[in-house]
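not sure who needs this but someone in the group chat was asking about Acyl-coenzyme A thioesterase 8 from Otus sunia so here u go. i didnt clean anything up, its just raw.
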Amino acid sequence: MAAPDDAGTPGPGPGPLGDLRSVLITSVLNLERLEVDLFRGRHHWVPSTQRLFGGQIVGQALVAAAHAVSSDEQVHSLHCYFVRAGDPKVPVLYEVERTRTGKSFSVRSVKAIQHGKPIFTCQASFQLSQESPVQHQFTMSAVPPPEQLLTQEELIQKFLQDPNLAERYRKHLNKIQAEDVPIDIKPVNPPNMFCSEAQEPKQLFWVRARGYIGETDMKVHCCVAAYISDYAFLGTALLPHRQHRVKFMVSLDHSMWFHAPFRADHWMLYECESPWAGGCRGLVQGRLWRRDGVLAVTCVQEGVIRVEQTPNPSKL
């Protein structure tokens, strides 16, 4: 993989911001190489929970693994476990092990370390391009294009303009609005943030990296997609249980499969659903679709979800 600062020269992208490099390339996924297979990553955005954002760790780990394979090998899958809470006050070290290098497939194992202990482990598999007549995929859901939808920021602004909005909700929305998340998001069917009625455990939104990445090594776009894939993902499992107040929610594991080339700085439809929740855990599945209907990425995650035993009174 080309180093982030070699990841493609800025060029004319869509809109007035077309010449701005994505912060996901220039900062978040720009690791410092300390040794041949040892890297250091720093933090761009820390959630209000003051835990490290899981997508950042997954994306940075994939960057480290990609530096340990040849330029013509592309990532086709990764499987990760979050084993300890990350500390946002110190950098993360990424230690890569070249587990196997084969004729068609190569495996790289990555350990993320803080305070001398692993906080995350990952195995990523890379493949040389191979043609096959065996091909099929699901069909993408019919949804409005992103140009017809409001961004998450615009939706929040609409809520804030309501003079009857309770002050505690206003503070919550202002906190979300102040977060410097390097992702553009346009929900297809945005839920009412202040309604406690159960909803189907499914959500769709258009997503893309903010800024310009351009045509470059496909591994760069996969690393960015790994970052994006964790945002709001586990929350899908909570949609049927909105009457409960969440006490604790973190990711346990995260897996991804990469199927077709894509641009992470172009709009993609993220289709998320939760087939099961129980035992203080929730399972979510996601599919990232290109605008032309090609299935680009599949994601699966399980996380811990602990709620107050007594349901909240209605927020209406």
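also Residues 3-19 have pLDDT under 50 and may be disordered. if thats useful
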